[in-house]
Amino acid sequence: MIPVTAEMINAGDIDEEYADLMKRITFLLDLWHDKPASNNDPYGRMVYFLLWLRQEVQARRIPIPLDRSYLGTLKYLTGSGDVRDSDDVGRAMGEIIHILQGRGLIKPRHYPLLVSLMDDFIAAVEKNRPGLAETDAFFREYCQKRDDIVAGTLKPPIEPTKERNRFDFASAKSLAPVLPGETNFDFGLRRQMIRTTYPLMGYRPLNVYKPPMPAPVPGLERMAPDFTALRDQERRKAAGEDK
């Protein structure tokens, strides 16, 4: 792996994270422009969250990472699939979570590091499985992606298509010493592969995560208020159990 530089990390630039958030917030709110903010259905709850997040990002009150207590609705709806109208929606919601958790998205300044990590993985596979490039389509594709990044013809993230959701490397089953469900499972190689395939799908390489960044404008509580008791009371009222 090549050395990680300060320029690659770009520590402290929270505006980069805000810009990435706003792009995805705008995409989702435009898509759901006819969905009213409401606590009565999944779309309404998601719109509520996005409106709140947009407000706080524009006010520069969101720290990175944001405490997990604020992410419950977003993570639940992302996992449940209740508002997953398309792969692009699921991707945007997942990327918002990734940004708010402090992991960030890949940028062109990270490409040299990604290529270096891919080179390390290729060398490790060739050492353990010599000749694999001649027999394994997955590994040949992986090597081609590496060459395409170097040539400038591929600029991660690799966008999903109708035929391929995200990037097939993450679910490939051909590298026997790498992936689960095969013989001679190698956790080290598996970890190396994950650290390169996730950046190919758009996520920042682990080695260049930014350190925590406080909000430029203080004011947001560190943890979200707990409205559990109020929520339960409202539910009892709706059910006629609490007069």
Question: Describe it for me?
Answer:
- This protein is mainly α.
- It is built from ten helices and no strands.
- It has helices at about 5-10, 15-30, 40-60, 70-80, 85-100, 110-130, 130-135, 135-150, 185-200, 230-240.
Q: How do the helices and strands follow one another from N- to C-terminus?
A: HHHHHHHHHH
Overall average pLDDT: 83
- Discrete helix count: 10
Cα gyration radius (Å): 21 Å
The protein's oligomeric status is single chain
Strand proportion, as a percent range, falls in under 5%
| Number of strand elements | 0
Structural class, please? mainly alpha
Q: Into which percent range does the helicity of residues fall?
A: 40-55%
Report the span from N to C terminus.
65 Å
**Sheet bearing the most strands, described?**
none
Tell me, briefly, the overall form. globular
Identify low-pLDDT runs.
Answer: 160-177, 227-232
Protein name: DUF4194 domain-containing protein
Region (Disordered): 217-243
Biased composition (Basic and acidic residues): 229-243
Keywords:
243 residues; 0% strand; DUF4194 domain-containing protein
Short recap of the structure:
The protein is built from ten helices and no strands. With 243 residues, the chain is mainly α. Helix 2 (14-31) packs antiparallel against helix 5 (87-100), helix 6 (111-128) runs antiparallel to helix 8 (137-151) and helix 6 (111-128) runs antiparallel to helix 9 (187-200).
